[in-house]
């Protein structure tokens, strides 16, 4: 299979994604939140672009008899009126089991919505990387790893996460890697300790300044969750 990497949401060319499998990565922290919430038995997650649209979606779902909860961030901070921030540690089984989550974040939910022309969209992070790699082997089609990035720019954390997944895929098979995919694989294999590598990243520094080290440590744990959430394009919701 052909493997490629897009380095930020601003670099997504929607027509390029047609007939390809996309893995959206925003490991700090939106995709880690989605994976964690669904692993803790949330019913589904709706990735929403704006705060206003999130409140509209909540009213729509309430009218359908559902019990939606709002989660997300702006500038890494909890949004006023929301139930959760963008910390995966808040999405516990006790709080989210059976619930529909409406999530709006600066980077990750935007990257997901810009990827809807792909054949299939998987949600990936370090915490489920091995499960994603195994799923991609089963699908066996060309893959584009979409890095959400930070405010439209390259993000070291998403890039090394892509590299880890590419490295896993290449353990047992030879694949056709683009130059940037080869670079991501090299970066990961040269920096196995993720926190040591990303500690100088801008987004890491922002979260560190907000005393979110527990989030950072959690999001850098490899392969602690075995589910692979997928986007259902008809409803635009994410489920297992």
Automatic annotation (TrEMBL):
Keywords: Hydrolase, Magnesium. The keyword Nucleotidyltransferase does not apply. Pfam families: 2-ph_phosp. It is an enzyme of class 3 (hydrolase). Its EC number is 3.1.3.71. It comes from the Bacteria. Its cofactor is Mg(2+). It catalyses: (2R)-O-phospho-3-sulfolactate + H2O = (2R)-3-sulfolactate + phosphate. InterPro entries: ComB-like, ComB-like_sf. Belongs to the ComB family. NCBIfam families: PRK00886.1-4. This is Probable 2-phosphosulfolactate phosphatase. The gene is comB.
